[in-house]
Amino acid sequence: MSDREQYVEKAKARIEQWNADIEKLQAKADEAKVGAKIEYEDQLKDLRAQRDVAKAKLDEMAEASDSAWDDIKAGFESIWEKATNTFESAKARFK
Question: Are 25 and 90 a contacting pair, CB within 8 Å?
């Protein structure tokens, strides 16, 4: 497996972990009181949006030509960093 394929597989695994995290946070939101539930639902909406952007960029990256790979990878890493920060922040607020 090439470095590129390993990178894409690792990113897919991270997105799957985010999906699992979203499910756990959704369960907490479902149990929350009305006021907190609205806030949690808003945060979950943001998390899903971040995940969807990262997934779309990952799909683009997986299909990229060798010449475009480095540029798309750099864009993905930028999106990834922002999404990771959003996820960590939301998980901390859900505790």
Answer: yes
Contact criterion met (CB below 8 Å) for 41 and 29: yes
Taking the domains of the chain in order of start, what are their residue ranges? Answer: 3-94
pLDDT in tens, 43-85: 899 889 989 988 998 888 888 888 888 888 888 888 888 888 8
| 6/1 Cα distance (integer angstroms) | 7
| Residue 65 pLDDT | 83
Q: Are the C-beta atoms of 86 and 46 separated by less than 8 Å?
A: yes
Please say whether the dihedral angle defined by the alpha carbons of residues 48, 88, 35 and 37, taken in this order, is positive or negative.
positive
What's the CA dihedral at 19, 34, 95, 47 to 10 degrees?
Answer: 30
d(C-alpha 8, C-alpha 39), whole Å:
33
